[in-house]
C-alpha cells in the first residue's frame, strides 16, 4: 500500500505545474483543479472568463488516476496552496479533503435553491450536477431484454470474461465500492468483488476505457460486451457513434448510485475573491441547466429541472454520507490487496 501511495504522490506532482500561483500573482485570475472531463468543463470555464473578465487557469486530471491524483496533490500542497477551487466529479473524496482541513467554508448565494442534500451544512462543498453509475452494454451484440439489470448479474456465468470495471483505487469506481461497503456491509461487498474476480472481470484504467471496450466489442478474442461505468462516459461513447445502451441497475432493491459533482473553496486560496466568483458561477442554475441539458451525461440536482436530457432513476441507492466516507479508506485498502488488475 505504501508503494502504491508513493507512486500516486509522484503521479500527482507530475500533473502540469502552474507558475506564479501565489498571493503576489494577478488578482484577476483563478486557479482551478478539475476532475470533471475536460470536454465538459472547458466550455463552461471559458464562458466564465468571457462574462467575468477573470482569467481561469485549469489543471485537469489524468483518466487513469481520476480524482485521486488531484486530491493527493491538494493534500500535498495544503501548507502552501497553489489552487483556489477544486471542481470534483464525485463527493466522497471531497469529504476527505474537508476532513483533512484542506477546504474552506463558502455558501454561494446562487445555491440557495439547492436541496440540502446537495450542499454541505458547514459550507465546505456545493453540488453542480450529478452522474449515475450504470451498466453499459453493446447494443449490437446484447439484446435489451438480455442486458444485466443488476451489478450482481455481472457475476453470472454468461458474463464470464465479457465484463469490465475500472480500477477501484481511483475516481468514481473508488467511490462506488466505498458506497457498497457502506450499504451492503463489508462481508457482502467483498463477496461481490471476489465473485467478479472469479468471473474473470477485466479491470482497466478508467471508466472511459470500459466504455471504449464495450463500444468496440466484436465477436472474437475476449470481447467485452458489458461493464460498469458512468452516465457521462456512456454519453461520450454515443457521441462517438458507438452502439451503446445503458441500464440504471438494481431498480428492484438496492438502487442506482448517484454521485454529485462538487465544487469547493481551497483553504488558503491565493485568489479567494476570484475563487468565490467562480464558485458562484458554477453553482448557478444556468450552469446546471447547460450541463444537464446537453450530451454531458449529467443529471440535475435542482428540483423541476425539466430541460435535463437524462431522467433520474426511480430508485436511488441511499448512502449515509458519514458511512460512505468512513468506508473510503477500508474499502480502498481491501481492493488494493485483493482486486488488482
Overall description:
By secondary structure, the chain is α/β, with parallel strands linked by helices. It has two domains: 2-130 and 260-310, D-Maltodextrin-Binding Protein, domain 2 (3-Layer(aba) Sandwich), CATH 3.40.190; 131-257 and 332-338, D-Maltodextrin-Binding Protein, domain 2. It has helices spanning 2-13, 38-52, 68-76, 92-99, 171-184, 186-198, 207-215, 231-239, 272-282, 285-293, 321-326, 328-338, and strands spanning 29-34, 55-60, 85-87, 103-104, 126-138, 163-166, 202-204, 226-230, 244-247, 258-266. β1 (29-34), α2 and β2 (55-60) form a beta-alpha-beta unit. The protein starts with a helix and ends with a helix.
Q: How many domains make up the 3D coordinates?
A: 2
Largest sheet: 10 strands, mixed
> Which residue ranges are poorly predicted, with pLDDT under 50 across at least 5 consecutive positions?
1-26
Given this structure, which CATH class of the largest domain is correct? Answer: Alpha Beta
As a whole number of angstroms, the C-alpha radius of gyration is 19 Å
What structural category do the secondary elements indicate? alpha/beta
C-alpha end-to-end distance:
15 Å
Average pLDDT number:
91
Element-level helix/strand string: HEHEHEHEEEHHEHEHEEHHHH
Inertia-based shape: globular
What's the number of extended β-strand segments? 10
Name of the CATH homologous superfamily of the largest domain: Periplasmic binding protein-like II
CATH architecture of the largest domain: 3-Layer(aba) Sandwich
Helix content bin: 25-40%
Q: What proportion strand? A: 15-25%
Number of helices: 12
